[in-house]
Design brief:
Elements: E1 2-10, E2 13-20, E3 28-38, H1 40-47, E4 64-72, E5 84-87, H2 97-100, E6 125-129, E7 133-135, H3 142-145, H4 148-161, E8 168-172, H5 176-186, E9 192-196, H6 200-209, E10 213-215, H7 217-220, E11 227-232, H8 239-246, E12 247-255, H9 268-274, E13 277-280, H10 286-297, E14 307-311, H11 316-322, E15 332-335
Parallel strand pairs: 8-9, 8-11, 9-10, 11-12, 12-13, 14-15
Antiparallel strand pairs: 1-2, 3-4, 3-6, 3-15, 4-5, 5-7
Helix pairs in contact: 4-5, 4-10
Length: about 325
Amino acid sequence: MTSRAVVVERPGVHRLVSGAEPVPGPGEVLVRVAAAGICMSDRELYDGRRDPDYVRYPVTPGHEWSGTVEAVGAGVDGGLIGRRTVAEGFRACGVCDRCRSGETSLCTAGYEETGFTCPGAFADHVVVPARLLHPLADDADLRAAALLEPAAVVAAAVRSSHPEPGERIAVVGAGTLGLLAVQLLAASSPGELTVIDPRSERGRKARESGATGALAPEEAKEAHGRYDLVVETAGAPTTAASSCLLARRGGRVTLTGMFAPGASGIDPAHLSVNQLTVRSVFGAPSAAWAFAVRAFTTGLLDPGPLVTHEFPLERYEEAVALVGGGDPGTGKVLLRP
């Protein structure tokens, strides 16, 4: 049987190739991809703007995905065949100090990730280590499950933020990460859950996801020093600094967005005088993946409504162009092999 895959040869150059169906090696599984999400890091990969330490051309992108196990390699339980599943992207070693501490996204053995340095899921099939699988319920919605990778990142942020009932919480950014954060944070029974984003359409989506209010950045200046917890998800040049201004004295700030060089720095005098606790999140460790999958399985997390566009593999270039294009009506874009 043949299998197709999008291959980005180098920035701006891609082709759809067909070849023999991949064969899983020892400890691996072959998954038929049901859906794969496109995020800004995929756009950066295609445009050549991703840090060269975190990409290896040529590559088949696709790190947000869901599918069904079709075959297993030697040493893997055959009972996985037919299971709906997602899988962690980081190929952590499992034995370094960081991995043994549970921080698998900070593995010190060297960066390897599905869709960036290893073949990803913009394809009919993807091969991954079986140890990275997070099997889903038999009736799981695979279209929605394709968003469990960003949901795991958000889960890492929320878990490390320790939200408490009755707190005033702000989420900066109402993209995929921000709207997923709203869903998880709403479950902590906040006294106030405000989303800050310049796009009014995104503010409406945030309210549908569980926010109690939405502000534009200019309006949010009136709320400086108000929030117990601020979860930053935008990764825009000014949002790390502005998120710290929103936190009350003694408050907490969690940075989830991926910032480019040249982003505005955080004022150390403001940090020290206000005794802020600032954390950052890079990817998602295994525990955050397990949390996100449990939240999805129980219905606490519903990523499906965030999907606005779906394309076949043949329309990859059109699909990736939508991401980061500035249209507030564009939510999560999926490829459906």
